[in-house]
Give the backbone structure.
Amino acid sequence: MPILDQGYQHWTGTLSGHAWRWLAITRHGVRIGMKGRFLRIAIMVSWLPAIILALALSMWGFVERKSAYVMPVVDFLVEAGLLDRRVAADPIYYRVDVWTICYDNFFVTELWLSMILIAMVGPSLISQDLRFNALPLYFSRPLRRIDYFVGKLGIIATFVGMVTVIPALIAYVLGLLFSLDITIVRDTFPLLLSCIAYGVVISVSAGLFMLALSSLSRNSRYIALSWIVICCVGFLVAFFLNEEDQSQRERRRARTPARAVSVQPQSPEQAQKDRLAAEAYQKALEDAQAEEVRANKTNWRWLVSYADNLTRVGQQLLGTEACWEKLSELRSPNDRERFMLNHAGPRYPWYWSAAVLAGIFGLSVCILNFRVKSLDRLR
Amino acid sequence: MPCPRGCCMLFQLEGVTKTYGHITALNNLSVSVPSGAIGLLGPNGSGKTTMIRTLLGLISVDRGSGEVLGMDFRRRQLDIRRQVGFAPEDECLFPRVVGVEFVSYAGELVGMSSKDAMQRAHEVLDYVELGEARYRMVDTYSTGMKQRLKLASAIVHDPKLLILDEPTNGMDPAGREEVLQLSRDLAHNKGMSLLFSSHLLPDVEAVCEYVVVLGAGKVLTQGNIQQLKQVHKQCFEVRLKAEMGPFAHRLAALGCRTEMRDDVLLVQVPDERSPQMLWETAAQQREQIRYLRPQRSTLEEVFLKAVEQP
């Protein structure tokens, strides 16, 4: 029994406008999500790559300033062949490239961690509302369906942002602070915008995809399982397709003529034969590499993997390929393509991946439109 | 927002038609209802829920126009829903929350700030007597508690109009009485207009003073309950001190129609005779009339009569 029972009192406060109504859904979803211990642990684990990124950018700041703290390490890396001498000699010239490659590696790691986070947060977002019949509670309030979807998407975007954009921003600020050079803002600001844009792409694409999956069942475990299957199986299929393609090329290369071994003393005819054989061998090697480069630029197999499509679009946004090309100029002309093959990853046209993501986006919108209906219907 | 015409109508619909495929849910429905506690009656499939959804602007009608709280329901749906509280019929919950979060979230969805919504959630949970259960997960609540929780979430923003769709469905008598009492209190003591949809006539009668009866998507009858429960001028309820059998026989011999209902004798006096004949007959038989009053229709009779209309 309350000590003072006032009964029903009228409320005289003011209600906010409609524009930010979705924020209530996002705020509520994040609050509920953060109650989960495993999710909190997963977020903290996801920050580890961000710590490494921040350390790398800060270290590069020291390298640019030729700080005595890091020069022994730089010398060691140069001696070990892990860092090119010309890069170490003029680090400011390679600043943007190093930063971009650091961010690219960070995002590749964080993308997979984001997929795990989304698998933890996303499945229940709509499926639980369907299970507990919460949609009438939402739609009988001053809320449109678009507010509902944006609010739910905002939950996923918040968690993805917590492990991608926000750590990227913090690392950026730390990198600025340790470089003590104002020109770094001019050089790297587009990279910062690219990071934000990439975070938005991941959030919107993966978030909407997960929401669509979440609307397909009332049991969130099935959704989580489907998400894991889509991400992992897609990746594995793409990986094995690539392995198969690679081994086919290896087999073709094995059929190229072996280099002739000459025995002393040799006649002028034999020397001529050896020279021709060596030229044929060299040409075969060049052809094989050219074919590999061609194959890498038209390799559609990664399109099967959802995460790799995001990675490819991310590389385009960050401009990673251009950075690797700049670094490849430090190599001999013959070695450049091999360097690019080893470091730049798949180089098929990025808009293929963008088209795949756009298709998934459209499909997700259709599923959501079909599964989450307004109350304008019979029971 | 005040009614632009200065009227005091809670809502009015003009020629509203809504079809779902070949099913006509609302059939050229025209209704005008004053503020207060309104009962919405009708058999299953009569269009009650569709009418409620129309009032909330949740559906697009095929034809017709109307206003709710002075606002056009076709254009200002969101504004209407800001000023209306709605507790749906079905069991529906926001998942994975405790009671106070449930109500607070409902407030935030209407546009209250987090702080206001939380404070208000505590107040209304106390009001609906769920204060003790406010920190329990809502999926552990009983049916009655869930109904009161829905009521709390519907009134958290202090709406001008509260719409309750079958609020006593599946409840035990005690829980039902609690919900009725809360609804009555809100409508009669707190100045909140109420639209109470139910097929349980005693519930409507216990809470509302005005009723709209729907059937096949049309208004069959509407009006003040006391006025609808009309007085039958030639019908009387009679109770005697002694046995009523002989008295009933005597009246029947005089041309009256009689019927025993519980401990009351219903007597229909012929049109050409006056009620005075009841006193005269009792005096002749040396009986004492202890109770005599004109018969009134029950709400059930009003409802059945309306529904049975061709």
In short: DSSP finds 17 helices and no strands in chain A.
